[in-house]
Write a structure and sequence with these properties.
ABHD16_N, about 525 residues, monoacylglycerol lipase activity, transmembrane, 9-stranded mixed sheet, 3 domains, about 10% strand, 11 strands, alpha/beta, transmembrane helix, Rossmann fold, 22 helices, membrane
Length: about 525
Amino acid sequence: MVGSYQKVTKWRYHLLILSRLPKWKLINGSRNSGVPLSEMWGIFNGPQLYRIFGLSNERAPNTVETIGNYSLSTLKGLLYVSTSLAFGPVVLYILYNRGMLAPIAATGVLKYIVILGIFGYGGRFVGRLMDSDYRQFVGVWEKAKIGTAEDKQSLKRYDFELIGVTPDYRAVENRDLWYLPAYNEGSAFSNLLATYAVHAFGRHMIYPGSMAILNTLMSSTLRVARNNFVASKNGQRVWLNSTTGDLIDAMFIPPDSSADAERQRTLVICCEGNAGFYEIGITNTPIQLGYGVLGFNQPGFAESNGLPFPTNVLAAAEAVFQYATNVLQYREEDIVLFGWSIGGFPASWLAANHPNVKALILDATFDDLLPLAESRMPSFLHSIVEVAIRKYFNLEIHRILEQYRGPLRLIRRLHEEILIIDDQSMNDVQKRATNRANYLLKKVLYDRHPDLIKDLEPQVDRWLKMTPAQRAMSAGLERNATESANRLAKLLSACDHYFVDFDANHVTPLDPGYFNIPMARTNF
């Protein structure tokens, strides 16, 4: 009797669940509660819905959908680890040692994978069917694919996983763009090792913001910040298609109506660092000053898809620039390029290819990635590191700046911990002397003012070791009328013009007081 009662109770529970599911239409019928078959696939395989912009709370999936989502996340994580170049060989070795590659054992493993997949997709599908908000969203999402501009704008009310969307702008290929020359040196063996190292773990070290685990950890914070931009700053979210086929998630913040006319005319394009996102990154500094701001996430970051190899990163930056000029209708002369850390690479490249921009501001940026990479790897691997960096991540920013002659500002962090070569020293002055921003300044001086810096590089090194207060004190002690003294004074004046120190570490947000747009200057 007890067993019969338990069976009846179990069936009643299942019937209760089924009774809550909407009845879908086989053909477009008259029932309002039905779900058209055209939307069934969207419910099954559609994007995750995070929230409706403007609402204080995120969407909370029901228990059934949550279980399905967790199951699919687990499955994707297992497949990623098992097939990655970094962990795949280790997983294969473990499976081989345990005899799990034999046909019978492999079939058993495959069975559990299939069960987990069915459980995940099935749970998510049923959970979404039970959610009227999600069904309404899928209807808008499906309609926006082939609908009017109004339909696409209706979709912008939602914050969701960016799959199956139509871009707001498709970048046009420009064959006249300048790029650093390709690197094709090194032996076949070193090239093979370099290729494996880059794809197995090198890219993740250079661009950790593209790692799935970091994106998962940051997702909630990014969604809250995105909602704040849209709800409080009148932010306009845009989706751009780059020439490499990546979908780039960007956000335009209109200028503050209370700002002066010059700031309202100016657009700041922000290029984030290797673990930076437009939602919580450098965009906030110019926004506080009332400028119009256009930020974007690099390929593989947050909701932007693709991988952040240099070609993809530059294509994304060019798509953003084209959108600014062709759609937002900003003149090049009214655009400021702002790059932080590794974001100085796409920002400098944009300046090199669009030399009429108003200014280029580089905050905590290096001259070349190779010295930094070598300083963090064992010396016996330096030859492999050189091939890997030069072939796949040749970020020689100083060479890119040789193509740009416009207004330039370099900002160095006095307590920099990322761009220094000597990170073991306890002496701040010694560590500051190895900051790669120093080398970027000197290379700019050699390129733009070779007559001034000739034979005076040690004086620049001495100037770089000083704090701003020490420089001000020493300036009044070195006045005389000799020709060499005048040349040194002009050189240090050039240093003051291009270079600013900010008393902070690498990740501290830039104080708005240091965001000063430089003017063009050739005589010192």
